[in-house]
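User: Can you help me understand a structure? I only have the sequence.
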Amino acid sequence: MLDYREALIVEKCRNELFPRLAKLTAKPEGSPASRISGNTGNTATEVPARAVRRSHAAKFTEGLLDEACILKELAVRVGQTVLDAGCGNGYMSKIFAEQVGRKGTVYAVDKDRCFIQALKEETGGTNLHAIEGDITRSGGLKAASVDIVYISTVIHVLSAAQLQSFIREVERLLKPGGFLAIVEIEKAETSFGPPLHLRYAPEELKSAVAMVPVNTVPVGGHFYMQLFRKEKM
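Assistant: Let's start by predicting it. Here is the structure, written out as tokens:
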């Protein structure tokens, strides 16, 4: 039986990824599509199967969150730099890219190659840069170069060590006074979502994240966003 993450992933792959990946895998050998599969003999259905095993629920909050509320609370402005950590299919990355405009930059980071490749195909040459990478490890982005780090429904799948590693990287990347925005599902019985023991109540999240808490706001349904600020020098 599929657990909740797998069920969401399968549904999203059926509705969104299969059409995209069918186009990608139709390209000749040596193309980005063949590099995604790692085997030019793979069919279009073999790639999503790997994606299903590696993906997380953060990729599928599209339609469940109040994007307008998120943008208002973050006060995303033209010219800013935003990092969407664990971006999934990049739907929020694209919204951020519209808000920051041509003078701004959005980095969409996820370790799922097929999602990143699809996002590159869609947004190549724009102010949105899709990067395959592990958000819990130090990457190639410059220190103190990011105004906002946004991470949605990913924190609860990280181990304590991974969370601390992620926070260290956030502290390195954020400009003084920059913000970390964490979206999570409330710690209450719901018809979907992770087991209660994996969820964070806002106060638990504040204790787990060694940054200055700013505020907690509901962002649609059973989801909330906790804002943290990097202290100014």
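Now, to help you interpret it: The longest helix spans residues 4-25. The chain has two domains: 4-55, 59-229. Let me know which part you'd like to focus on.
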